[in-house]
Each structure stands twice: as structure tokens, then as C-alpha cells.
């Protein structure tokens, strides 16, 4: 094997791996803000706790039920004195079950749940309507102190794709009572009428990976300097 100088690119590989590992570990440790927005943890017999205990891979942490990647699947903010769910609430857009009962919520939740496409069970104070209205859910049940909105309906199916969205776009759900028209591949712009392959995602992808490799490079060289001195 040929001897390699300290600056050779192969030396960067373990550094890069170390950086990614550290970043990954930090991500796993840091709980999303929404999970600690309210003190305490999920109560034992609450619906969120019951949901979380059904699957061994899921774990309860503070007010959340998370999977092993740290994705929020359940959120229990009951009895948190909330007038509104707050700016961190979109972090919970992956949740399947959310409990907001026993809060003085204002009765206007429609846009707060934009993007919450996975949500199947929502528990609310009795005086707050299910977001999207009664037609956005399969069942709405009233109890003495709360109500549950259950089974999010896909409005794209009932309203008819063709009428809602332009010719080269298609309808996708965007949370309770909400939908979105997404342009087909190769189309963009107003009413999906412009053709071309401009892709914002790809642009950010390239920019993002360049930034990352530069950071790793800097981190690696800085560390080596620090060690030498
Ligand atoms: C909550 O559940 C845990 C185990 O699931 C149990 O050890 C604990 O005693 C329970 N606490 C209460 C107050 O029921
Ligand atoms: C709500 O929280 C308060 C303390 O913040 C507590 O005293 C009360 O018992 C709780 N109520 C319920 C129904 O959990
Ligand atoms: C809703 O409130 C009732 C009391 O009216 C309570 O028994 C029930 O457990 C609550 N439902 C949920 C899902 O917490
Ligand atoms: C809506 O339609 C899609 C396919 O167009 C289907 O996969 C989905 O199961 C339907 N959902 C409901 C609730 O009917
Ligand atoms: C939709 O796409 C087809 C080609 O796939 C094109 O002929 C048509 O003009 C497009 N319609 C609109 C409204 O842009």
C-alpha cells in the first residue's frame, strides 16, 4: 500500500462518518419542542398512551409518542391551558392521534391542521368543532367533557378529482377538510400549464449536499489543526 499524506481525501472518510454520527445522535436526543411545550408526560390510561403501548417500537417521551426515528405519532396536550396549539404545532403533522381536550381552545382550528394527513383520531374539548367540519371525518362522537373526530376522510375522492384540479394536476389530501392540487411531473406554475423540468427540490438538494461536504471538510481540518497545536 502506498503511504498517504495527512491531507489525502481518504482521511476525511472517518471524519465524515464521525460528524454524521454525532449529528445523528444529537437529533435522536433532542425532543421536538412540541413534546415539551407543556410540563408533565402522557398520562397512563389516556388514548395516546394506549395507542403507543400497542406497538413495541413506539415510546412515550414527555407529551409525545415517538417511533425509533423520532417521528411523532401521538401527541397528548390535554389539560395544558392552551388557547391555541402554538407555533411548534406543525412539528406534529405526522401524528396519527392527538389529544387536545381540557384546554380553553378557540373554536377555529381549520388551518392549524394543514398537512396533518396521517391524523386518524383527534380528541377535542366539547365546545370546539372538528377541523374541516363534520364531513371531513368518518365519525364524530360527543361525550360529556370532550369529543372525538375519527377517521379522516379523503375529500379528493368525494368531490371529484377532475373538477377540482387542472388538467395536468392531481388532487392530494392536505389534512382534515383540506386538499391540494399537485402538478404532474414536468408541469408547474399557475394551473399546471407551464412545461419544463425546473425542480426546487433538486436545487436545494445540490446546495444542501455542497454545504454539508464543505462543513465536513472544515470540521476535519480544524480538528487536525487543534490536535497538532
Ligand atoms: C403507569 O404504567 C406503568 C407501566 O406501564 C406502571 O408501572 C405504572 O405503575 C403506571 N402508573 C399508574 C399511576 O398507573
Ligand atoms: C389539570 O392540571 C392541573 C394542574 O395543572 C391539575 O391540578 C388537574 O388535576 C388537572 N386536571 C386533569 C383533569 O387532569
Ligand atoms: C372524554 O370524557 C369522558 C367524560 O365525559 C371520559 O370518560 C373519557 O375518557 C374522555 N375521552 C377520552 C378519549 O379521553
Ligand atoms: C380514495 O381514492 C384512492 C385512489 O384514488 C384510494 O386509494 C383511497 O383508498 C380512496 N380513499 C377513500 C377513503 O375512499
Ligand atoms: C396537459 O398535458 C398535455 C401533454 O401531456 C398537453 O397536451 C396539454 O396541453 C396540457 N394541458 C394544459 C392545460 O396545460
UniProtKB/TrEMBL annotation:
<dbReference type="InterPro" id="IPR000742">
    <property type="entry name" value="EGF"/>
</dbReference>
<keyword id="KW-1133">Transmembrane helix</keyword>
<protein>
    <submittedName>
        <fullName>All-trans retinoic acid-induced differentiation factor</fullName>
    </submittedName>
</protein>
<dbReference type="GO" id="GO:0045669">
    <property type="term" value="P:positive regulation of osteoblast differentiation"/>
</dbReference>
<keyword id="KW-0732">Signal</keyword>
<feature type="disulfide bond">
    <location>
        <begin position="183"/>
        <end position="192"/>
    </location>
</feature>
<feature type="domain" description="EGF-like">
    <location>
        <begin position="152"/>
        <end position="193"/>
    </location>
</feature>
<feature type="signal peptide">
    <location>
        <begin position="1"/>
        <end position="30"/>
    </location>
</feature>
<keyword id="KW-0812">Transmembrane</keyword>
<keyword id="KW-1015">Disulfide bond</keyword>
<dbReference type="InterPro" id="IPR042350">
    <property type="entry name" value="ATRAID"/>
</dbReference>
<feature type="transmembrane region" description="Helical">
    <location>
        <begin position="198"/>
        <end position="219"/>
    </location>
</feature>
<keyword id="KW-0472">Membrane</keyword>
<keyword id="KW-0245">EGF-like domain</keyword>
